[in-house]
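Aggregate trends can hide what the representation actually does to any particular protein. This step matters because it turns folding into a mapping between discrete strings. For completeness, the protein is quoted in full, as a sequence line and a line of structure tokens:
=====
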Amino acid sequence: MSYFDSFRKVESFTVQEFMRGDHHKSRKERKKEEKLVALTTATAISGGIAVQPWLFSMVNAAEAIPVGALGDGVKSRIVHSFDPLIDLLQNLSLPLAGVMVTVGGIFVMLGMKERGYSLLMQASIGYILLQLSPLFMDLLVSIGESI
């Protein structure tokens, strides 16, 4: 294999072609399918083909899933999948807030009071919000269940 064999012509695809899996087909095959679809559509429109009732009988009403129907197990797994991330953030918030408070205090001692107080306030608000994040998650879940 030579150096120049690794260079290929770049082809671009639309999102629809990629999602349908048409990107694996050659350009000729895609053009042939597009012509066939256009011909079929034109024939159906010009021929006045009506939709037959037997076409709708293929869908069984018992198979229909109600909108918003998620089992309790799925909801529980979704909610608890965020627990490790929330635990990590809560455990990191204390040391990080401690460093920020220390740096803020040093800024105040050095005469940069506005920057120091701003850092102290940001550290305290961030720490409180991170500690209350499980409460916010439970609140979002209860709002989602009520809708």
In short: The longest helix spans residues 83-109. The chain has two domains: 12-48, 72-146. The mean pLDDT is 76. The helical segments are 15-20, 27-47, 53-56, 72-80, 83-109, 113-131, 133-146.
